[in-house]
Amino acid sequence: MSRRFQELDWRPTLMGELVLRRRWDPTTDRDVLEIKLGDEFLMSNLFTVAEEELAHRALADVDGPDLDVAVGGLGLGYTAQTALTDSRVRSLSVVEALDPVVEWHRNGLIPTDPALTSDPRCTFVHGDFFALLRSPGGLDPSTPGRRFHAILLDIDHSPRHVLHPSHQEFYEPAGLRRLARWLHPGGVFGLWSNDPPDEEFLTAMESAFTQVRADIVTFDNPLQDNEATATVYLASTGADTPGQ
């Protein structure tokens, strides 16, 4: 029998106390792995469908082979791992501001099957995703100016519920236009949100992209014995226009 609760690691960070813990959930009869930052739950492996759908749906909207993909936010690794199941992905850059999260993957405290750390296509970038967007070099400091065919973002809970006030500007037209310029023509931006579709945010996206939509993703919630939802926002730069 698993222990009811186990704190696997604890680290102080500039954004608050970062905790990786494992607990036994009697409702689902399984171990649940969770990451907390202060009072916020960043991720749980109890609900991963929407994070996986973020990668599936965004990459389904990208045409062509040999894709370079960036993921903002590592967490438990489900978005990144799902992206790597697409055989067209030749490189995956995962940007993570909290270095302990990357360390947990490297030392096996957060197991993925197969391991992200063993896939030669996957590179971890230690940095603030939003700050890198504002920098002249972009999301890949090793290759300044590099563009991507898809950029997937899973950091904040939603455009209105952010983990840090400095993130808020990204969800406005200027911030979204800044991201669009790091995409190839026809490139796709995908965003996970825990909230229902936000019309104001969709309008902001339309100022930066040519095609915009919000998909509602449904999944079972055994804790409440009902169906839960999340939102995946998807947007394209357009095949004939450069990133802005």
Summarize the structure.
With about 240 residues, the chain is an alpha/beta fold.
Structural summary, described in words:
The protein has a 7-stranded mixed sheet with strand order 7-6-5-8-9-11-10. The chain has a 4-stranded antiparallel sheet with strand order 1-2-3-4, with no helix packed on it. With 244 residues, it is of the alpha/beta class. The protein has one domain: Rossmann fold (3-Layer(aba) Sandwich), CATH 3.40.50. The protein is 20% helix and 37% strand. Helix 1 runs parallel beside helix 2. It is built from 6 helices and 11 strands.
Describe the largest sheet: 7 strands, mixed
CATH architecture: 3-Layer(aba) Sandwich
CATH class: Alpha Beta
Tally of extended strands? 11
Strand content: 35-45%
Given the C-alpha coordinates, what overall shape results?
globular
- Rounded to the nearest angstrom, the radius of gyration is 17 Å
Oligomer status: single chain
**Arrangement of strands in the largest sheet:** 7-6-5-8-9-11-10
Mean pLDDT: 92
The first-to-last residue Cα distance is 54 Å
Name the CATH superfamily assignment.
Answer: Vaccinia Virus protein VP39
Tally of DSSP helical segments: 6
H/E element sequence = EEEEHEHEHEHEHEHEE
Summed up, the domain count is: 1
Instruction: Label the structural class.
Output: alpha/beta
Unreliable stretches covering 5 or more consecutive residues = none
